[in-house]
Amino acid sequence: MDFTGNLFIGGDEVRGTAGTMKALNPATNAHIEPSFSLGGAAEVDRAARCADEAFDTYNATTLERRSSFLARIADGLEAIKEELAQRTSLETGLPIAQLEAEIIKSATVFRQFGALVRQGRFRQATIDPALPERQPRARMDHRMQKIALGPVAIFGASNFPIAYSVAGGDTASALAAGCPVILKAHNAHPGASELESRVILQAVKDAGLHSGVFSMVRGGGNEIGEALVDHPLIKAVTFTGSEAGGMALFQRAQQRSDPIPVFTEMTSVNPTFVLPAALAARGAGIGDGFAERMLVNVGQACLKPAILLAIAGAGFDELRNAMIARVQAMHARTMLTPAINVAYRKGVERRAGTGAKRIATGGDERGPWEGEAVLFQVEGAQLLDVPSLSEELFGPAALLVRLTDFGQMEEIAKQLRGQLSATMHIEPADYALAARLLPVLERRTGRIVVNAFSHPQEVSYASIHGGPFPATSDSRFTSVGMSAIERFLRPVCYQGFPDELLPEALRAANPAHVPRLIDGEVR
Ligand code: NAP
């Protein structure tokens, strides 16, 4: 593939007005050809106008047509799997096989959203028929369906360059809802972003859709992201990244004259609670499994299990030794970007300075931006005294916490900030304690896992990738799973309408056979 390095705005390839950049291969510290163009507020304005122009026709596409558009993107991604994985690997240091799996997962997600759209259930079509005889006042016919919010700005994440980036779940769910997308590509993988964008643009063309349905912009600093959040034609924003970045964008959006929703996914340590009977029965297996998952993606995953809490007693030493063995066997590996690697090294130093004991270290660094795996241990009382020990350390590090008793486990659980997930390892003899811990966890997390690990995340109807702040900025929604579409929808009620003027899903004939709630009953 010959890259043009252009921005893609409303079907046109555009040379940005803010200079150029090159991708960096973090494994060699060498820049990779070619140059990629950078844009700013002018390019955002053009993309937002194109998206706004596209909105009405795209939002009105039949469910069948929108569904096959999403399936075309899935086919397109699979068709460039090898090329996309190779380029992405150069830009991120992630292994090709892992990236190929990520591409297949993303393609599957586009197909899943295609199937969801075809069903039409996301419309939540609801009909309260007229009650002309009702006393003391007749009821008019009321019908409700959900429609798309409008053009959406999506910030691609650095750590999953496909599944949380240009052709990721945010894009799939926004397009499924009927929202045109302006994608702010992450500068850590510009080549991958161009390849993914081309797949989506080709699908827009093949499906005969308005060219403003998808644009991709890229910038050299905060200006472009700020312009996206500020633009009056943008109606929602999604973001995956740091707490500082997410909160800056969230607060900016609330200061607009017309505030808009900003769905940020920021930080989570996904605590793992090992209860006594499980610890005694399978401490070594739990320790090994935990350490294996904490090292996936060189620890650069929002669902990395980062803290394990267990009560001193039978099985504790086996668990600890298994964690140490797994971490020591891990070679240092290339991290996504120099900035992420530097932040990781500083975070490790900071943690060591708080009195946490380094109990295992992986193999030495050989490449420029490699991160060495580190396992720290603290006592429960230390964690209670220094709550910052439970903050995310993005990279291959984790914390083992030795507790005196279950009361301390409960106390620490209550002190934790909002999480994407929490895990309990339990045996039947632990059920009474687990039932005590459960309400504490429900208040702090969006997903509770039993006898497995938080990573990987399933993409299904019931899956939730969300949680109380600071895991996300809005705990009512998920960014992964089929209900991710709800972030981009809003309800509209049609009162007293003639059948001919009603949206298709609310007409008497219901031609697309959309499931509906009629007078409070599912039909
Ligand atoms: P980031 O710095 O938060 O940046 C994410 C995206 O948002 C980038 O496109 C960035 O643009 C943009 N951005 C950030 N702050 C902005 C602001 N104030 N105004 C406008 N745009 C802004 O995240 P990152 O680059 O992926 O990684 C940095 C750190 O974030 C990591 O070390 C890690 O701690 C955390 N992180 C966490 C997760 C997680 O899943 N928990 C995932 C990824 C990153 P520019 O690149 O142009 O600045």
From TrEMBL:
Q: Which domain of life is it from?
A: Bacteria
- List UniProt keywords, sorted A-Z: Oxidoreductase
Q: Enumerate the spans annotated as Aldehyde dehydrogenase domain.
A: 18-457
Supply the InterPro entries for this chain: Ald_DH/histidinol_DH (IPR016161), Ald_DH_C (IPR016163), Ald_DH_N (IPR016162), Aldehyde_DH_dom (IPR015590), Aldehyde_DH_Superfamily (IPR050740), ALDH_KGSADH (IPR044151)
Looking up Pfam families in the UniProt record yields:
Aldedh
Annotated source species: Caballeronia grimmiae
Name used for this protein in its record? 2,5-dioxovalerate dehydrogenase
A GO molecular-function descriptor: oxidoreductase activity, acting on the aldehyde or oxo group of donors, NAD or NADP as acceptor
